[in-house]
Design a protein that fits this description.
Length: about 140
Amino acid sequence: MAEISLLTLANHAEIQNGLLYMSGAEWDTLTRYYDQGKAPEPHRIAIALTVVVPWSETNHPQHVAMWIEDEDGGSRLLEQQLDLKIGRPPGRVPGSESRAPIVYNTSVNFPKQGGYRIVAEAGEDRRRRTYSFRVIDRISPAT
């Protein structure tokens, strides 16, 4: 069955020629700086993941879902779903697995400081991977 082999956060990520490029990746703390009495602005983040598909599952649709939730799992801030079909490139050795990198660059407005996690799942059996991080506020006094 398909599974998520990589799940991470970055400042920016992109895919070029099937390769995953990330800038400022693997962070676990997002610090928001803003003035007292004002609301924090949405933050730009990139979610990067790689789906691994075994030989027997290539050329079959694979469902992938990902979302950001608070540490209690009670509220989802963002949710994305997609279906992909990974083929067998010419010359691929029979029995080998294939990898498909996926990137989602977005802005997120975190409602409060605290713990959050990204959850990603793939395949019919919904194999799940999580990535936890914290949001910390640094508020400047009003002038």
